[in-house]
Amino acid sequence: MDLSPEYLFRRPVAVNVDDEGRIIVLETISGRMQIYVKEQEFVDAPVNL
Q1: For residue 32, what pLDDT is reported?
Q2: What is the largest CA-CA distance in the chain?
Q3: 30 secondary structure, DSSP code
Q4: Rounded CA separation 44/32 (Å)
Q5: Is residue 35 domain-resident?
Q6: 44 belongs to a structural domain
């Protein structure tokens, strides 16, 4: 039984960004596809270089 947290990647083999801006990650070990959606109210932090 695997008790590792669900958010951890288990040998990702492909990453894609679709037309709606979602990030899709395919994994081999867990045999799953994780989809991440950016929050609408998210603001990028200012960077001072």
Answers
A1: 87
A2: 46
A3: S
A4: 29
A5: yes
A6: no
Total count of domains within the chain: 1
What kind and span of H or E run contains 33?
strand 33-36
In a domain, 30, yes or no: yes
Say what the pTM is. 0.63
* Cα(25)–Cα(47) distance, integer angstroms: 27
Q: What is the residue range of 34's domain?
A: 9-39
User: Is residue 28 one of the residues assigned to a domain?
Assistant: yes
Q: Which two tokens stand for residue 25?
A: 């990650």
| Each residue's pLDDT tens digit, 1-49 | 566 667 678 888 999 999 988 999 999 888 888 899 877 776 777 777 6
